[in-house]
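Thread amino acids onto this structure.
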């Protein structure tokens, strides 16, 4: 069975917010013409993607200017086993770039009068646990719902995404067992694929069509996106699709997304289809379409804060002084980035089939090649102040998040302050820093730092590094159980090292952070929970997308008895 969308013989009757290929001003033949760019621009773009050969995976790139295709190129191989090169028509998986299409599908149903974004999701999906206040559809699309990311939860249980065939039934099962959210809905921002998988389920339940069929009828066919569909069955054959690869440093291994969840990702598409979509977002021809497209680009706001950088499936930003609407994506070995610059009517799509593809960085560099012809770009963020080594050392150290307990370690690398495992911090003054990635750090007093980005703001307090005794480590040994992920974690001592064991093949050494907090590597941060008298009652696992997942300590009385 082939999943590529068929060419429409006639457009079906569409109710609500109708989108038509005529209104785009882009016929399928327009996009099919070979891209011709000035030699100097093409050479600049070729240099950005240099290094991809007939022996490597690679990327496809497309650029549109003023609603017309300006450049399409392919670099590297779509299939290393069969020597198939990447072309501009190669189909890739777009990762989280897919989210804007899911948000658009929900907005079309709102335009039809079939739902409202500020309704509780439980009205349509009662499997979602009730919260106070309730999670709304809008919050799911904005990542402000507090719903834990189902993929992170699956990873904690021992089945990370793409290691088993997850379906939306699995997503609903995982979500239904959650006893809490990361935070009170609507009060913070935390990226969560859960909301977008639930949105795909929502569209199917409200429309009476599968999510894939609804989007085909209401978006892909009317917009002439002939090579766009969903990976709703990972077993399906997709003509012209690039395989995805892991770059091991010593060669390449296939790394495909063997799962059937979609809506959060799973869009199969080409650079030309993505650019046709973005061109319509820049300049919709129908007022009804402009209304819901405008909603997608309204940034979130929390009580007492200005609008922040996420709309509905779109990142809203300013880069180098230019208004930017974009989104990145990654699934298995696929990487993607789609960046639009509405004021200049320039858009760039990059799709890669290798983990080292750096789609976002290459998309931004490609965009700068074209933007520089139209405007003067601001210089990237840089240092505007100089700190002595003593001043840097006074700020370095271990800090603890007030929100979820995760650590922030600041190091002096001899030349600059940097986040452990992260970017170098560029001083703007003796107390304020910026990173090239857009984070801002402000030190308050001597022991507090406020970290903000385009989505949220988190305060960290300086804390003391712990060196637990052997007796303190021994007191933590035991088995801890979470019904929410149906998993047990066993803490054991091995040669004086505290170890987390899960199942028969997972062994994670724990590194002390501050008191009752340990770095558990890929598992996240492990926090010890105690009763008032100091007795250890449990642990909780904290990750970027799962703020506190509790595991209760088992006792002899609490262990289930074997069947007679």
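Threaded sequence (564 positions):
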């Amino acid at each position: 069975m082939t999943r590529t969308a068929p060419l429409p013989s006639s457009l079906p009757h569409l109710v609500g917010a109708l989108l038509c290929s005529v209104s785009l001003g882009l016929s399928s033949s327009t996009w099919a013409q070979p891209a011709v760019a000035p030699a100097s621009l093409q050479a600049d773009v070729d240099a950005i993607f240099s290094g991809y050969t007939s022996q490597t995976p690679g990327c496809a790139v497309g650029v549109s200017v003023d609603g017309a295709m300006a450049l399409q190129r392919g670099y590297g191989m779509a299939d290393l086993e069969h020597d198939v090169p990447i072309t501009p028509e190669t189909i890739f998986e777009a990762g989280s770039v897919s989210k804007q299409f899911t948000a658009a599908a929900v907005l079309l149903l709102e335009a039809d009068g079939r739902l409202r974004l500020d309704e509780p999701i439980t009205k349509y999906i009662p499997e979602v646990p009730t919260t106070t206040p309730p999670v709304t559809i809008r919050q799911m699309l904005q990542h402000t719902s507090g719903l834990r990311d189902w993929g992170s939860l699956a990873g904690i249980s021992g089945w990370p995404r793409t290691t088993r065939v997850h379906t939306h039934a699995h997503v609903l099962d995982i979500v239904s067992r959650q006893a809490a959210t990361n935070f009170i809905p609507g009060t913070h921002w935390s990226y969560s694929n859960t909301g977008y998988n639930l949105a795909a389920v929502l569209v199917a339940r409200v429309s009476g069509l599968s999510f894939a069929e609804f989007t085909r009828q209401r978006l892909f066919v009317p917009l002439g996106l002939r090579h766009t569909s969903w990976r709703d069955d990972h077993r399906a054959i997709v003509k012209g699709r690039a395989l995805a690869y892991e770059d091991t440093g010593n060669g390449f291994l296939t790394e495909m997304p063997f799962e059937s969840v979609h809506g959060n990702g799973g869009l199969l598409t080409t650079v030309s289809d993505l650019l046709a979509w973005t061109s319509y977002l820049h300049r919709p021809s129908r007022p009804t379409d402009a209304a819901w497209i405008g909603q997608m680009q309204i940034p979130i706001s929390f009580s007492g804060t200005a609008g922040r950088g996420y709309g509905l499936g779109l990142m809203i930003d300013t880069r180098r002084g230019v208004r930017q609407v974009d989104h990145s994506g990654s699934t298995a070995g696929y990487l993607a980035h789609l960046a639009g610059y509405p004021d200049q009517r320039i858009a760039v799509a990059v799709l890669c089939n290798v983990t080292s593809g750096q789609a976002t960085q290459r998309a931004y560099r490609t965009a700068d090649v074209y933007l520089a012809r139209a405007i003067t770009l601001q210089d990237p963020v840089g240092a505007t102040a100089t700190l002595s080594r003593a001043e840097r050392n006074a700020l370095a150290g271990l800090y603890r998040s007030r929100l979820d307990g995760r650590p922030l370690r600041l190091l002096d690398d001899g030349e600059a302050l940097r986040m452990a495992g992260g970017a170098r911090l560029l001083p703007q003054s003796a107390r304020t820093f910026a990173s090239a990635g857009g984070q801002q750090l402000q030190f308050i007093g001597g022991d507090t730092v406020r970290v903000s980005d385009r989505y949220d703001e988190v305060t960290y307090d300086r804390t003391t590094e712990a060196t637990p005794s052997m007796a303190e480590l021994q007191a933590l040994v035991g088995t801890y159980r979470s019904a929410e992920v149906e998993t047990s974690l066993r803490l054991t001592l091995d040669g004086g090292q505290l170890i987390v064991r899960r199942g028969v093949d997972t062994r994670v050494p724990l590194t002390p952070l501050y008191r009752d907090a340990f770095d558990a590597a890929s598992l996240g941060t492990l926090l010890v929970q105690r009763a008032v008298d100091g007795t250890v009652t449990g642990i909780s696992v904290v990750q970027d997308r799962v703020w506190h997942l509790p595991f209760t300590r088992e006792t002899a009385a609490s262990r289930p008895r074997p069947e007679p």
